[in-house]
Amino acid sequence: MKFLENIINMKINSISGKELLKYAKQFNIQVTSQQAEQVAAYLRGRNINIFNSSDRAKVIKEIAKIAGPDTAKKVNQLFLMLTK
């Protein structure tokens, strides 16, 4: 299971704005291309572990600042689906 966690975290920590926008559309998360780029820029290179609840909470708070609380809530739901 640790292997899958590493793959998921690696993808999140190296995601591009285009990829993030594609995933947002796939999971019906409303985000503009500018917001996707800003969120991706925040995520890139931070070595975030979404399987760690405190890391995930920090990320969600930052996403709320960038894209708004509704988007952050949906992203959190997606993260929770990925971590189970």
Textual characterization of the structure:
It contains five helices and no strands. The chain is mainly alpha-helical. It has one domain. Helix 2 packs across helix 3 (33-43), helix 3 (33-43) packs antiparallel against helix 4 (53-67) and helix 4 packs antiparallel against helix 5 (69-83). The chain is globular. The relative contact order is 0.16. The mean pLDDT is 89.
N-to-C span = 11 Å
Largest sheet: none
Query: Which class best fits the helix and strand makeup?
Result: mainly alpha
The total count of strands amounts to 0
Strand content: under 5%
**CA-based shape:** globular
Q: What is the N-to-C succession of helices and strands? A: HHHHH
Mean pLDDT across all amino acids: 89
Rg: 12 Å
* Domain count: 1
The helix content, as a percent range, equals over 70%
Total helices: the number is: 5
Low-confidence stretches: none
Pfam families: DUF2624
Protein name: DUF2624 domain-containing protein
Summary tags:
DUF2624; mainly alpha; DUF2624 domain-containing protein; 84 residues
In short:
The protein is mostly helical and 84 residues long.
How is this fold's topology laid out?
Elements: H1 2-13, H2 17-26, H3 33-43, H4 53-67, H5 69-83
